[in-house]
Amino acid sequence: MLQQSRLGSTIAAVSLESPGHNKFAWLIIWAWILVLAIILLAGAGRVLVPVFPVGSVTVGLFLYFRAPALYIGYTWWFCFLGSLIRRIIDYQSGQITPGRWGLTSMLVASISLITLFQQIPKVRRDRGLPFILSAMSVIYGFLIGLAYGRLNLQYMVSFFEWLGPIAFGFHLFSNWRSYPLYRQVTERCFVWGVLFMGAYGIFQFCVAPNWDRFYLDNLTATSFGKPFPFEIRVFSSLSSPQAFATVMMGGLLLLFSSSDALRLPASSIGYLSFLLSMARSGWLGWIAGTITFFPFLKPRFQMRFVLTLVLMVMLVTPLVTMEPFAEGINQRLESLSNPEGDVSLQGRSEGYSDALNLALSEPIGQGLGSAGPETALGGADSGILPLFFSLGWLGVVPYLTGTSLILLQVLRSKDSGQDTFASASRSIVLGTLAQVWFNNVFFDVFALILWGFLGISLAAQRYHQHQTL
């Protein structure tokens, strides 16, 4: 009876994706891709300024209700490509259009708020309370910002950048019965995503396409390199080198668990573009994720992991020793071994020391997106200072409590040793959190990686526990 019950729950989960629904859903997706492609190829990107976010969310809503697994893949692909499409739209419009570059991807992820609100009455029974704690902290921070009179479009966008990733992670967890299907979709998306983002990143570095030059010319940041071939710090289809490196870190770690035939070409291209991002925080995150991945694997998977890692090194080493790739990568790698001469690191340290005491003295917070004094170099780049300035102690305590409770549950998992995807997901979470002193991992694309893999890691644990009952 128990075996029949487990089989029935699995069949019920997979039956959500009926062939009829899938065919029609794919028709909708391809129709939307065709519309975007025709308009952009015609150079009429200005038309898409309102149409792109509205149309993308409309398609996302259809997928959410009619093809749940495709909605997961759709969300991941918008994480990969949303910023690139927005840059092309801006270039063709001749101006920076309203909202952040990753706005559409956050809006698509925020569709999962429907799940969050539907599941609130039974979160205690389903062990989803930690997600609610963190979500309520974000809502608290949003209300504090409103009390400070910060009601504007930019502030509304920041609300979705903080809350949308939490909702998406909760959506993945609450649908744990569909874990095998969601695992398959996520792994496939990241294999192809690494291949595409890696290839585009190399193209961006060598060619510096016009829309990326336009983007760099309109940035106030000076740390993205110069808008010329071989002088760009690769950010590929994302909005910054750090965001790209974090997403690529997740994809490269997932490739260790994949048996897809594309994993080898995807890895070689992906690692080269990952290094060309010059994002040391992402490199350190990958190291942390790799180190924590190995111990959770069964011995036979550990051997496969080592062999895969050796093969990746053999594939990538010849590429990174070739010009024009070698010089910039080697300089950045050398800075890791010489922190005393790293001006950027020293600036960040000074910024932390100047603002940390002020941040820790915030009982109430200043609202979402607050990063402290502008003179605190590096403060806005970290996750700690913006968290305290945004939420204060009243918001930080429940937010970190919720995050820590989920992380502890994931780390206590004893059933995923045979599930290399679950082990990789856990390592991605740890690799993302390892960057907290360098990047604000609690909002935007960083948070989508963090919360998305927290959610699917917890779903894996719940699914495997159910299978052993």
UniProtKB/TrEMBL annotation:
Q: Which organism is it from?
A: Drouetiella hepatica Uher 2000/2452
| The keyword GTP-binding is annotated on this UniProt entry | no
Q: For this UniProt record, give its keywords in alphabetical order, as a comma-separated list.
A: Ligase, Membrane, Transmembrane, Transmembrane helix
Q: Which PANTHER family match?
A: LIPOPOLYSACCHARIDE BIOSYNTHESIS PROTEIN PA4999-RELATED, TEICHURONIC ACID BIOSYNTHESIS PROTEIN TUAE
**Transmembrane region(s):** 24-42, 71-89, 129-148, 155-174, 190-211, 232-257, 269-294, 306-326, 387-408, 443-460
Highest taxon in the source lineage:
Bacteria
Q: Does the keyword 4Fe-4S apply?
A: no
Name this polypeptide is given: O-antigen ligase family protein
List, in alphabetical order, the Gene Ontology terms for molecular function in this entry. Answer: ligase activity
Record's GO cellular component terms: membrane
What region holds the O-antigen ligase-related domain? Answer: 271-399
Q: Which Pfam families match?
A: Wzy_C
- Recorded topology in the membrane: Multi-pass membrane protein
Quick one: signal sequence residues? Answer: none
Residues in coiled coil: none
Where it sits in the cell: the answer is:
Membrane
